[in-house]
Amino acid sequence: MSFAISADFIAAENAKSLIAHTDDYAHLGQQLERRGISIEAMTRRAMEYQVAVPTWGVGTGGTRFARFPGPGEPRHIHDKLEDCGVINQLTRATGTVSPHFPWDKVSDYNALRQEAAQYSLGFDAVNSNTFQDQKGQRLSYKFGSLSHADRGTRQQAVEHNLECIEIGQKLGSTALTVWIADGTNFPGQQNLSRMFENYLEACERIYAGLPKSWLLFLEHKMYEPAFYSTVISDWGSSLLAALHLGPQAKCLVDLGHHAPNTNIEQIVARLIHAGRLAGFHFNDSKYGDDDLDSGAIDPFRLFLVFNELVDAEMRRAKDFSPAYMIDQSHNVTDPIESLMSSATEILRAYVQASLVNRSALADAQSASDVMVAHRMLKLAYTTDVSPILAEARLRRGGALTPIETYRASGYRSAKTRERPAVAGSSSGIV
Ligand SMILES: [Mn+2]
After folding, report:
1. What fold, for 49-357?
2. 179 CA distance to ligand 1 centroid (A)?
3. What is the pLDDT of residue 347?
4. What is the reported pLDDT for 421?
5. What spacing in Å lies between the alpha carbon of 260 and ligand 1's midpoint?
6. What is the DSSP string of 249-264?
7. How far apart are CA 75 and CA 425, in angstroms?
8. CB atoms within 10 A of CB 367
9. Among the listed residues 46, 47, 50, 55, the one whose alpha carbon sits nearest the alpha carbon of residue 321
10. What does DSSP say about strands 229-230 and 183-184: parallel, antiparallel, or unpaired?
11. Ligand 1 centroid vs 127 CA: distance in angstroms?
């Protein structure tokens, strides 16, 4: 019998901090009321917000140098679902998981869908993988996949993506995320124009295989593993491809996939304008694609991204329905704790951005009152909305204090006993 955290245990843990929470919530309610904001409305918004968790996120990641496995790591998709279930059980903000193929391959996807449902989980976008060679694969992706100089290799990569769509349909997904590692390390290695054209032509065949209700998410990344040129290196290339393919193709923004100091919120605004914002891979970074926890390094930037999103939501921007997902690599923390903390930080930025008085801000902008406009954002950002987040979790049956409750439950040590360490798993993050 595998260990699980019970609803009674969560309720008992919640009881310990309920009085303090009730006080804090009432106090924040009074503060917000003075600003003309209903805490009840904010709590309801918090209760409705969901962010997907990637199946690969519950395992320990790694770097190009090493991977240090943690105790009780998930060994396969079944263990991963169990861990994702705990994250949602305690935070109530992560009701879907995003699987990666072939990493999460099983023989029966209907059974997998039912298994996920037992943890109250559904499936978000499916992710294809043509950035590494799989066992028994006929042609290698060493020199690229969808943009490869060889037609047969491109075709193999297309077929893998079509298979991902097929699997995704069985799981109830409605989107395919494509990120390719294709690029070059040497000037002259490939023809830069031809690589992009090869990519477009291959994506046309994937696009043709999309069910009507599906979207194709194109993820750009500035560099790595290719360090001289990358085929889909930025939002410009991504948007060109999406516009070329058609309305079901949109651009996915991974926060870590830009040069340091890039104004990501402005990129978000441009993609909203074009009606082509697919959604997000949330994480944080200091230098590059660091894959650090959301909100760990620059929570203000996360807030500013959400400021654009809430603005678009409030003015009912056309074709605006972004998908939210976490994409991080956890190297020095328990992945379950990192994902719960990140979901909380993402939700925090969303609620903070929801506090901005949009019409007053528009007035200040019209009057070119710079300081007033800026201070409106700062007022929202510096408001501690923790009691709202806690109340939203509480009302949905989650934990007032997810990380403390998780630690007190003994889940990790129970899993360490139940899941013998897998030998030979030493590769870094991909
Ligand atoms: Mn990503």
Report:
1. TIM Barrel (3.20.20)
2. 8
3. 98
4. 75
5. 16
6. EEEEEETTSS-TT--H
7. 10
8. 10
9. 50
10. antiparallel
11. 10
For residue 313, the CA-to-ligand 1 centroid distance in Å is: 23
Please give the Cα distance from 223 to 235 (Å, whole number). 13
Binned at pLDDT 50, 70 and 90, residue 337 comes out as very high
Taking the CA atoms of residue 346, residue 347, residue 348 and residue 353 in that order, the dihedral angle to the nearest 10 degrees is 90
Q: Is the pLDDT of residue 422 over 90?
A: no
- Residue 219 phi/psi, 5° resolution? -105, 125
Alpha-carbon gap, residue 210 to 316, rounded angstroms: 26
The CA distance from 3 to 414, in Å, is: 6
CA of 256 to the centre of ligand 1 (A): 8
Percentage above 90 pLDDT, the chain: 97
Contact indicator for 166, 200 with CB cutoff of 8 Å: no
Q: How far apart are CA 78 and CA 67, in angstroms?
A: 22
Strand partners for 323: 279
pLDDT of 430 > 70? The answer is no
Q: Residues with Cβ within 5 Å of ion ligand 1?
A: 254, 281, 327
Q: Residue 171: how many CA atoms within 13 Å on its side-chain side? A: 33
Q: How many CB atoms lie within 10 A of CB 134?
A: 13
pLDDT tens string 376-396: 999 999 999 999 999 999 999
User: In whole angstroms, how far apart are CA 201 and each of 30, 147, 183, 241?
Assistant: 58, 9, 16, 10
Structure tokens at 217: 């998410």
d(CA 356, CA 380): 6
pLDDT score at 420: 85
This prediction's pTM? 0.96
- Report the separation in Å between the CA atom of 68 and the middle of ligand 1, taken as the mean of its atom positions: 21
d(CA 396, CA 346): 18
Residue 423: predicted pLDDT? 57
Hey, where are the domains in the chain? Answer: 49-357
Spatial strand order of the sheet with 215-219 comes to 126-127, 175-178, 215-219, 249-254, 277-282, 323-326
